[in-house]
Amino acid sequence: MARPDFRHQLEQAQRQNRSLLCVGLDPEPSRLPEALRDQPDALFAFCAAIVDATADRVCAFKPQIAYFAAHSGGEAQLERLLAHIRAVAPQVPVILDAKRGDIGSTAAQYAREAFERYGADALTLSPYMGSDSISPYWDYPQRGLFLLCRTSNPGGDDLQQLPLQDAAGPPGERLYERVARLAASQWDPHGQTGLVVGATYPQELARVRELAPGLPLLVPGVGAQGGDAAAVVRAGWAGPGTLVVNASRAVIYAGSGTDFAQAARAAAQALRDELNAALAAPL
Ligand SMILES: O=C(O)c1cc(=O)[nH]c(=O)n1[C@@H]1O[C@H](COP(=O)(O)O)[C@@H](O)[C@H]1O
Asked: Which terminus, N or C, of the chain has the lesser number of Cβ atoms within 10 Å?
């Protein structure tokens, strides 16, 4: 049976698991439990154990492609991981984090990689090469697209905060504000677009929410980067399917012994509860 569109899938997973939490799958070999480290499929085995332990506490999983592609044989492990998630947690959508951005002909290949090779439900993209670098992904209208808008890293200021003075927007509009406005007005012909905004900048998150009232926001930066989960909910929540809060290291490395998966489950549960406590009404 065909999978429902991403937005619908996300909303259902949020309601079913009563969770806004997305667990990021960023397996770094030196941080894996010793018992797994020497296994040839260690990346897969580690992530699959985290998936099995947390699938009923999350609304999405977000594997970061670099952690797999950096290693010979890693991409095959990523393919296997996506197949595993579809088998054990078909209700939980997968956001492939690849931050792609390129000219149209190359973007078409990246789209094929994400949606056909890996079967991802959604993908992160950089929109900073403009509309023709995004439009090839519209050929997959059921899949979600999260455009980088205001990223979680301090260096995001270097460009994303630049004030614009052209006639296409209000004077002094910031570059990230332009991205949010375009995403909400011109870059979403099939209702599949969302934005990435760092948890580390709750004021900008609130501003993006104002400019794009109904778009799903993917918010990384709680946990290891220090973002405040409750502040994210206050600034970004606009109803089911509109806010996805990602934590990677704080969950997947919560423990390092043989009970690492149980430790990840406990960390995911605590973060889920913290996010839910900040909601005005339960999911
Ligand atoms: O697109 C992303 O997911 C992303 C955007 C951003 O602005 N900041 C950011 O940290 N990320 C990703 O989100 C994850 C954050 O990981 P933790 O800091 O360990 O929770 C990493 O996979 C980053 O690549």
From this structure: N
Q: Is 99 a catalytic residue?
A: yes
Cα 88 to averaged position of ligand 1 atoms, centre (Å): 25
The tokens for 83 are: 């197949």
CA of 228 to the centre of ligand 1 (A): 15
Ranges of each domain in the chain: 6-277
User: How are beta strands 193-197 and 243-247 bridged, if at all?
Assistant: unpaired
Q: Which residues line ligand 1 (CB under 6 A)?
A: 24, 26, 64, 97, 99, 124, 151-152, 196, 198, 220-221, 223-225, 246-250
**What pLDDT does 102 receive?**
98
Q: What is the pLDDT of residue 195?
A: 98
Looking from the CA of residue 197, the nearest atom of ligand 1 is 7
Q: How many A from CA of 247 to the centre of ligand 1?
A: 8
Name the active-site residue from 80, 86, 99, 190. 99
Closest CA to 158 of 166, 150, 168: 150
d(CA 282, CA 131): 37
Does the predicted model carry a pTM greater than 0.90? yes
Q: Which atom of ligand 1 is nearest to the CA of 218?
A: 3
d(CA 121, CA 3): 9
Residue 280: the pLDDT is: 87
| Nearest CA, atom 8, ligand 1 | 152
Q: What is the pLDDT of residues 137-195, one digit of tens each?
A: 999 999 999 999 999 999 999 999 999 999 999 999 999 999 999 999 999 999 999 99
- Which atom of ligand 1 is found nearest the CA of 252? 19
Q: Please give the CATH architecture assigned to the domain spanning 6-277.
A: Alpha-Beta Barrel (3.20)
3-state secondary structure of 3: coil
CA of 165 relative to ligand 1 center, distance in Å: 30
- Listed as ranges, residues in the chain with pLDDT below 50 are none
